Inverse folding.
């Protein structure tokens, strides 16, 4: 009798233990499920793809990669910059329209987001995307091969007038800002160049001009800076309203008597329909990155302009640029 009672007590104790273990596992699973659910709801919780629609080594590539390297620390996930060059940004912009509006695919843009629709290259423009953050601006500049002997814009213009069509001027692809700046400059300067457009942005023609394959190039000071430091290029003038802090000795077109100003602005864009709460998270991360002294110092050493604007401000800015570029394109 005592033995049977001990067996019953033992069985009951074992059952209690089993139920306790099962309940504990159930609670753990429930807890894990809850934490996993919370993690999946957090944005972002996986790497972000940032399309750069220009060549590696160009101005957009350099600045975007530097900014992204800081912003990813704010977001807590990697930002993978992927180059998709072609058509002065058109290839990358078109690709972005195919992506899900979930905040995990972004694209950097220049003012070509405005010009392509004006030229009929694309059916979309800046109003067909979510504008996240504006972070950089750069004026166009005229650079020449250092061995050609042109030391001032006046020297260069004089030679071009005496030899119409002889000077080869490299620039970005049709529709690109540097291409537009090149064609805008010719009537203002009263010259005719043999314009040699590249397949993408300013990186390729800068290398060609530095190597002597072409005589000159229209691009940004940032894109020319390394070749200027190497003694292979000379920047003769910039198409900005004021002299650049990083290049104080280089005159503007305006101070030399030529009324021309052409500037491109870089921004982060997302597919149309991306949730606004996610846009806000992205904006705050990129804004903090742009506010860092590290980023400001980088731009200063590269001769590039700093800015920090939200999507609403960029919409107004691009609307104004659209009007300006419309006038320039009518003169071409």
């Amino acid at each position: 009798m005592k033995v049977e009672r001990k067996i019953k007590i033992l069985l009951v104790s074992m059952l209690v233990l089993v139920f306790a273990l099962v309940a504990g596992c159930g609670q753990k699973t429930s807890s894990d499920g809850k934490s996993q659910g919370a993690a999946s709801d957090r944005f972002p919780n996986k790497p972000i793809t940032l399309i750069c629609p220009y060549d590696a080594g160009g101005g957009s590539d350099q600045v975007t990669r530097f900014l992204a390297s800081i912003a990813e620390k704010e977001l807590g996930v990697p930002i993978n910059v992927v180059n998709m060059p072609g058509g002065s940004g058109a290839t990358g912009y078109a690709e972005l329209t195919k992506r899900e509006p979930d905040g995990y695919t972004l694209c950097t843009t220049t003012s070509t987001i405005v010009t392509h629709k004006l030229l009929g290259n694309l059916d979309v423009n800046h109003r067909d995307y979510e504008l996240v953050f504006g972070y950089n601006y750069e004026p166009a500049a005229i650079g020449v091969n250092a061995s050609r002997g042109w030391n001032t814009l006046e020297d260069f213009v004089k030679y071009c007038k005496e030899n119409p069509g002889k000077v080869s001027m490299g620039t970005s692809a049709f529709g690109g800002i540097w291409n537009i700046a090149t064609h805008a400059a010719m009537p203002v300067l009263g010259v005719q160049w043999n314009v040699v457009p590249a397949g993408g942005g300013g990186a390729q023609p800068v290398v060609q001009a530095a190597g002597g394959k072409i005589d000159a190039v229209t691009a940004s000071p940032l894109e020319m800076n390394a070749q200027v430091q190497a003694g292979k290029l000379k920047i003769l003038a910039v198409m900005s309203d004021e002299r650049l802090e990083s290049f104080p000795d280089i005159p503007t077109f305006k101070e030399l008597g030529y009324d021309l100003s052409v500037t491109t602005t870089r921004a982060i864009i997302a597919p149309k329909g991306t949730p606004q709460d996610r846009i806000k998270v992205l904006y705050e991360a990129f804004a903090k990155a742009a506010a860092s002294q590290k980023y400001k110092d980088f731009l200063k050493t590269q001769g590039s302009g700093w800015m920090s604007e939200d999507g609403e401000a960029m919409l107004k800015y691009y609307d104004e640029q659209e009007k300006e570029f419309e006038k320039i394109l009518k003169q071409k």
User: Anything to note?
Assistant: The two ends are 110 Å apart (CA to CA). Residues 2-41 form the longest helix (40 residues).
